[in-house]
Amino acid sequence: MNPIDRRRLASCAVPGTKLSKHAALRSQQRSMSPDIIDAVIDFGKERHACGGCFSYSFTDRTWRRFVDAMGPAARRLERARSAYVIVADNGLVVTAAWRH
């Protein structure tokens, strides 16, 4: 289980990913679906970011693990491979974007 999953379970009253207002606005502007945000958090590599936040993104290894878990459904989320998500230490998504 990814470390954020434990934080998410402890910090969220309802299942799913909680987004800050900024993250909700940016993900809409950047056409990033909640499925992509969840996939990056659940399967991506966690790295420390500034301010006590964590950054999640796919590496080759984590992408293969994601494809193995999702099977043919992973094809529709191929674009997720270039996504990254910044999550606060309380489990709240701060922002989400695409790497260029």
How is the topology of this model organized?
Blueprint: H1 3-11, H2 21-29, H3 34-43, E1 45-48, E2 54-57, H4 60-70, E3 83-87, E4 93-98
Antiparallel strand pairs: 1-2, 2-3, 3-4
What does this structure look like?
- The chain has 100 residues and is α+β, with helices and mostly antiparallel strands.
- The chain has one domain: YaeB-like fold (2-Layer Sandwich).
- The protein has helices at residues 3-11, 21-29, 34-43, 60-70; strands at residues 45-48, 54-57, 83-87, 93-98.
- It has a 4-stranded antiparallel sheet with strand order 1-2-3-4.
- β1 and β2 form a beta hairpin.
- The chain is globular.
- Residues 3-14 have low confidence and may be disordered.
Q: What's the CATH class label?
A: Alpha Beta
Extract low-pLDDT stretches.
Answer: 3-14
SSE topology string: HHHEEHEE
Sheet with the most strands? Answer: 4 strands, antiparallel
Please provide the count of β strands. Answer: 4
Structural class: alpha+beta
Radius of gyration: 13 Å
Query: Whole-Å distance between the termini?
Result: 29 Å
**What is the general shape?**
globular
Strand neighbour order, sheet with most strands: 1-2-3-4
What is the share of helical residues? 25-40%
- The CATH architecture assignment turns out to be 2-Layer Sandwich
